[in-house]
Amino acid sequence: MPATDPSPRPQVIVRLVLILVVLPAAAMLLSLLFSWLVETRQTRTVFASAQTTRLATTILEEQAPLSLGDVLLCLPRDMPRRPRDYPSIMTCEQGGWIAVAGGEALPPAAEVVDADWPEGAGWPAAFVLDPPPGTRMEFEIVGDHVEIRIAGLPERAELGPGLVRDARLIMKTADFAGRGRYLVRAELELGTPPGISQRGYVQSGEIAFRARAMLTNWFGNPPNLLLREDRIPVGGFVTFRDLKEDEPSPMNVQIIADAARRHFDVQAVNVPGPTGAILQYVGTEPLRLVPLWTDLIVKDPFVSLLSVLGGLTGLGAVVRLGRSRQPHRDQRPGTAHAPRRSRPDPD
Questions:
Q1: pLDDT digits (tens, 9 = 90+) for 113-162
Q2: According to the model, what pLDDT value does residue 237 have?
Q3: pLDDT in tens, 221-252
Q4: Which of 42, 53, 75, 138 is deepest in the core (most CB within 10 A)?
């Protein structure tokens, strides 16, 4: 009987498993690895621009002082006459606050929470905003006034007059705008955290992520590529974090008041590093805004070329592997066809 050929079914199954399971799994793992490297190891520059009626900063370094001129100081009483609430504009709610105008004597330390006033000191007629590193300040525009709240102070620092926790500086928005821009390196918050009923919120804004082109980065003075742009929705709350160290990212911040539109124009740029933006909105989980590895592939020509070459190389390897597993017909020993013997011609 003629020999039967071995069934090609096992080879077909192996090839299907390789193509449908192993290769997609390897591609997914590489994608996750590349995404992690881009998010947490890539050095990039983040530009943020927003129009908002509230922002908060935690000072990280000494900065140029800003002269605010004549401002009203609202100090929290040590023993308020009624439950403390936020001071109303230019009145400071005398029941829970003490109002001090320019040139007036500061109140005794016993009347103000955590205050230690120098004897005989007075509230300056021209106040200079120069808080030490570690100070947390909240800026808010309400009506036609700017309120600057001292929300936190460093434990050991030389504090000037008026720098008391929960103290508020109040001045007209037009006066703040006339003082120019306020520059500071700080941890930055734009808007109000969800769930807090305050008046300040982001009106509009956008965030742009840029990075140096990979190939030209090795030869000096590379161009910056725009990897991704995101818009900040109205009412959104944005913070910036170093995704490698998982801590707030230092930002170089510029604050300008727009008296006509009654908001702050805020521009900020990070210290180059693996910075991402965290967007929170009412009723949603925090969203991490950061360039994806697909953004890098699309925007960087060198990475695009490497991706195409890598894809072609992988496809060629699959084709060669498939050909190498084509079933061969086996020939058993002794079953080969012997050459025919020629029959002798009949006489």
A1: 877 776 667 888 888 888 889 999 999 998 889 999 999 988 876 677 77
A2: 95
A3: 556 788 889 999 999 999 999 988 889 999 99
A4: 75
User: Rounded to an integer, what is the distance from CA 212 to the centroid of its chain?
Assistant: 18
Q: Give the integer Cα–Cα distance in Å for 252 and 233.
A: 22
How far apart CA 181 and CA 158 sit, in angstroms, is 25
Which H or E run contains 16? helix 9-17
Sequential DSSP letters for 171-217? EEHHHHHHT--EEEEEEEEES--TT---S--EEEEEEEEEEE-HHHH
**Do residues 76 and 84 make contact, with C-beta atoms less than 8 angstroms apart?**
yes
| Spatial contact of 179 and 67, defined as CB atoms under 8 Å apart | yes
Selection from 178, 126, 167, 171 nearest residue 144 by Cα: 171
Contacting residues for 7 by C-beta, under 8 A, at least 6 apart: none
Strand 263-270 and strand 251-258: the pairing is antiparallel
**Residues 152, 211: Cα–Cα separation, whole Å:** 34
From residue 147, give the alpha-carbon distance in Å to each of 48, 62, 166, 321, 323: 23, 22, 11, 70, 75
Which tokens is 37 given? 């490297």
> Which residues have C-beta within 8 Å of that of residue 30, sequence separation ≥ 6?
none
pTM: 0.74
Asked if 253 contacts 188 with a C-beta cutoff of 8 angstroms, the reply is yes
Task: Please state the separation of Cα 290 from the chain's center in Å.
Answer: 7
Given a cut of 60, is residue 164 above it in pLDDT? Answer: yes
Distance CA 342, CA 294 (A): 73
